[in-house]
Write a structure and sequence with these properties.
By secondary structure, this protein is an alpha+beta fold. Helices cover 33% and strands 20% of the residues. The protein has six helices and seven strands, in the order H-H-H-E-H-E-E-H-E-E-E-E-H. It has helices at residues 2-21, 57-62, 71-78, 99-102, 143-154, 195-215; strands at residues 88-94, 109-117, 120-128, 163-164, 169-173, 177-182, 189-194. The chain has a seven-stranded antiparallel beta sheet. It is globular. Residues 19-24 and 30-34 have low confidence and may be disordered.
Length: 218
């Protein structure tokens, strides 16, 4: 009996040693899944009161009579080339300054801001009238309520499909397009952003900086 027991024990120890020497098989990395329910591209992004991503500088300023002569607009456009903007220009339009369009096309909006890259709109933000505006606008204690209105107007996914960011802030991630909704202090704004255009701007800046470093002579 003792000899049989010792034989079985030796076989068991040998099996354990053999398995310990077998290298573990590497597991394939888990690929992140794109769970976004939005496939819109920047070209397919909704227009806000007639303003769309991809519009030209001339098309934008024509919507705001006299804006092309305003010093801040001229300065932003003239300084867009080269360092430090590399093609980027940011324009802001407060609707109180443009009363003729504020009562019609942009009724209920306090301000429009756009970012241009190489003369084309790559980001658009509309800020809506709130409780302190004249005339007074709606109050949005919950960003999901605001998103429900956006989804209804522009056929976008429901609020549950938007990624939660900071409080009262959500973003819908599409195909090279981010749509952001925010309701700080009850007021509301929506932003459409062509993400790849900003990548190009950063790459352009990095190339220029690299060239400067290569040409430097200590």
């Amino acid at each position: 009996m003792s000899r049989i027991f010792m034989t079985m024990l030796a076989m068991a120890l040998g099996a354990i040693a053999g398995s310990a020497q077998t290298p573990a098989q590497p597991q394939a990395p888990v690929q992140p899944q794109n769970t976004s329910k939005c496939s819109l591209t920047p070209a397919q992004a909704p227009a806000i009161r007639g303003i769309k991503l991809g519009m030209s500088t001339e098309e934008i300023v024509s919507l705001f009579p006299g804006s092309s002569q305003r010093p801040e607009i001229k300065k932003a456009l003239e300084s867009s080339e080269g360092y430090p903007n590399y093609g980027v220009a940011r324009l802001g339009f407060q609707l109180l300054t443009y009363p003729t369009v504020a009562k019609d096309r942009f009724a209920g909006i306090e301000g429009i801001s756009v970012t241009l890259f190489d003369g084309r709109v790559v980001e658009l933000r509309a800020t809506y009238a709130g409780r302190d505006s004249r005339p007074r606008g709606p109050v949005w204690p919950n960003v999901d309520d605001f998103i429900a209105k956006l989804s209804e107007a522009y056929a976008l996914p429901a609020a549950r499909d938007w990624r939660q960011g900071a409080q009262n802030y959500k973003v819908l991630e599409c195909d090279g397009l981010d749509i952001e909704a925010t309701t700080p202090n009850g007021s509301a704004s929506v932003s459409l952003r062509s993400t790849k255009s900003f990548d190009t701007s950063r790459e352009r800046a990095a190339e220029v900086e690299e060239k400067i470093r290569k040409e430097f002579r200590p």
